[in-house]
Design the sequence.
């Protein structure tokens, strides 16, 4: 891999690199979407947090 990095003519500019990273990130987000349902205990904790926030306002 060091050989590939040593050749300056094969480097890409920051804008192209950012575009590639963004595209890869978007595809990863689509393929690694979280499960729609939370574990029961976590859902209970979130509900408790919401209840406490409503009471404090």
Sequence:
């Amino acid at each position: 891999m060091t050989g590939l990095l040593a050749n300056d003519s094969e480097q890409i500019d920051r804008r192209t690199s950012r575009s590639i990273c963004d595209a890869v990130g978007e595809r990863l987000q689509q393929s690694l979407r979280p499960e729609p349902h939370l574990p029961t205990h976590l859902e209970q904790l979130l509900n408790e947090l919401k209840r406490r926030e409503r009471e404090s306002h």
